[in-house]
Design a protein that fits this description.
Order of helices and strands: HEEHHEHEEHHH
CATH architecture of the largest domain: 2-Layer Sandwich
Distance between the termini: 71 Å
CATH superfamily of the largest domain: GAF domain
CATH topology of the largest domain: Beta-Lactamase
Number of strands: 5
């Protein structure tokens, strides 16, 4: 599968990143594992790896606060090492990676302004990423960057649409609950809304959740009354 063939509108952002990670892995010689780190504002970084160890090494970088992926994403420049076990730039991460048999790494920033994260390639062999391999990796990463940027924008738009739909639904439920309280109390809309908010704070329940419970309870009572009253006789 090629990058341009990935259907961005099908599946969530995580599945798109997973597909891209596999394409990158398969497109570059000598790679034993690939991982994509996507940095998003006000959200935890999204991580998609082709191998379990690749994902675990990304998480390890988060724990240690150092590593090739973090360096590439922060500095917007490629970073490479052919001997992770003795790599001075990542004195804690490097030996940990070396102990699990990973000796070479090439991390490339996603080429979108601002940088969205990094593509990180791992290899078991030492000095695996020669100049031709690194050049190939940069070309593949540049293509992946554009696809990831589009996928991220689409995901953000979907989240916004879902949030707007929820807000509209939430507002409708609150309005219905206010109407119920108005009929019960004989009060106006402002007084009923204030009473609903006060009750929400006293019970430590979200306004929408409380409104939903009031609407559901009113519907249940209406059903009970209709059962007690029995069927309506036909008109004669």
């Amino acid at each position: 599968m090629k990058l341009v063939q990935i259907p961005l509108g099908q599946g969530d952002l995580a599945s798109v990143l997973q597909s891209i990670a596999h394409i990158v892995h398969e497109s570059i010689t000598g790679v034993d594992g690939a991982c994509i780190r996507l940095v998003e504002a006000d959200r935890a970084d999204a991580v998609a790896g082709t191998e379990k160890f690749a994902t675990e090494l990304e998480r390890l970088q988060d724990e240690l606060g150092e590593g090739p992926s973090l360096s590439a994403a922060a500095g917007a420049q490629p970073v490479m090492s052919g001997s992770l076990g003795g790599e001075p730039r990542w004195s804690r991460f490097g030996p940990r990676a070396g102990r699990v048999g990973l000796h070479s790494v090439l991390a490339l920033p996603l080429r979108v302004e601002p940088p969205l994260g990094a593509v990180t390639l791992y290899a078991k062999a030492k000095n695996a990423f020669t100049d031709p391999v690194a050049q190939r990796a940069q070309l593949v990463t540049a293509a992946a960057s554009a696809v990831i940027a589009n996928a991220q924008q689409l995901a953000a738009a979907n989240r916004l649409a879902a949030s707007a739909h929820w807000a509209m639904t939430e507002g409708a439920v609150v309005e219905r609950a206010v109407g119920i309280l108005m009929s019960r109390r004989g009060s106006g809309p402002d007084e009923a809304l204030t009473a609903l908010r006060d009750l929400s704070q006293r019970q430590n329940v979200k306004l929408a959740e409380l409104a939903t419970s009031i609407v559901d309870e009113a519907a249940r009572r209406a059903r009970d009354r209709s059962i007690i009253a029995g069927p309506v006789p036909p008109l004669t």
